Amino acid sequence: MKSQPLNYINKFSEFFEPALLADLEASAMLMEVKSGSTMLNVGQTIRAIPLLVSGAIKVSRMNDEGQELLLYYVKEGESCAMTFNCCMLSQSSVIKGTAEEDSLLLCLPVMLMDEWMVKYPSWKKYVMTTILNRFTEIIKCVDEVAFKNMDERLVNYLKEKSNITGSSVLNLTHQKIGDELGTNRVVISRLLKKLENDKKLLIYNKQIKLLKDF
Amino acid sequence: MKSQPLNYINKFSEFFEPALLADLEASAMLMEVKSGSTMLNVGQTIRAIPLLVSGAIKVSRMNDEGQELLLYYVKEGESCAMTFNCCMLSQSSVIKGTAEEDSLLLCLPVMLMDEWMVKYPSWKKYVMTTILNRFTEIIKCVDEVAFKNMDERLVNYLKEKSNITGSSVLNLTHQKIGDELGTNRVVISRLLKKLENDKKLLIYNKQIKLLKDF
DNA sequence: AAATGCTTGTGACAAATGTTACAAACCCTA
DNA sequence: TAGGGTTTGTAACATTTGTCACAAGCATTT
Prior knowledge:
The structure is a homodimer of 214-residue chains.
Chain A: H1 6-10, H2 18-27, E1 29-33, E2 38-40, E3 48-54, E4 57-62, E5 68-74, H3 81-89, E6 95-99, E7 103-109, H4 110-119, H5 121-147, H6 150-165, E8 169-170, H7 174-181, H8 185-197, E9 201-204, E10 207-210
Antiparallel strand pairs in A: 1-7, 2-6, 3-7, 4-5, 4-6, 8-10, 9-10
Helix pairs in contact in A: 4-5, 7-8
Chain B binds a DNA duplex (30 and 30 nucleotides) through residues 149-151, 173-175, 183-187, 189-190, 192-193, 203-206.
């Protein structure tokens, strides 16, 4: 798909020591995932660890009643902490992972992840860093849900979306936003309309354009 | 304080291999913490890893506006995942740890924790298990905050308290409950009164007694 | 352009939670 | 037992969010 195969590995050269990079190149499998496809669902067991080369993965919680709540995004050069854990303990997942864009990822057999914790300090550090970052993000998420009103959460959500996609034009329906924030469509429409009245954004069909002073 | 010093170490004998237990005994320092004392506050850096021998530690999030939210409890034989991470990466804490009861804990120098990840498979597994369990608990917490009403959250809270203390009589003010659930006192009084009317519990001054069909 | 299905706008109302204020009950200490 | 601080009960009201219903707008297909 791309010209230089080593590019995939090089995405991680700032984190990993040379020997690990070589090992990674030898052992990991490159996979392509289409935007919108669910890579991991609640209850599934994880068989491989994903290292994201390009694209973005949305990680969300689905509760028993089928309600969704966005937790965080996995971006280029990152991996998913829950995955590490589920792998190492062979437990089934409590979260869902969906490709937010077309994505490329390196898949690593579970056993290697465990070996490498002992073998490569840079791998151990990468894993622990990833875990801590996710912890921090989830706690931020708890904070928001517990203490912030929906208008503020919506603004943060839109900012983050804009960040991930690198664009101020977001292709989203009100329904989808509602789902990801764990509320319903009418609430979102209402709040978006207020933001539009305040000249923070413009609403189009299936599309929202953030203005400068958003 | 107790008669057999080895008891402290033996709390962990089901998780740790013999060599690790010996190393633990040689390197860890036993500490006593009084109920109610804050062991770790937001912004502090962690200098030692606590392994809980007896008692219980309450871990909660304090946000910028000083609002609190209970995340989970660390119980006997357990440790705190956030602590692992903060230690290994020398970052400052985003959470608060308070002794819920008088507690005994083994304190481990940060450097050892890192070494042991490589040296002892059972330590590595213990750390990863702890991290995964905390993740799961925090996600349960997100679920509750996002999707459950306060009445249900209150019931779960009281059940857990009763579990931790091993008693159906809880010494709690409505104010404290409100703080830990991130809401205000009047709301709690209201809901407790409803539960009392439903014959689920009895309200006394600074005390709540859960009835059989709670 | 008519039909269809999805998306958005909006009013009306219900339910849950937050806020303020104040009275009553309880508990400790003088 | 009287007083003072803390804790609990409750009314009244504001705000936020959830829910239902239905109209209007938009896009695609025929």
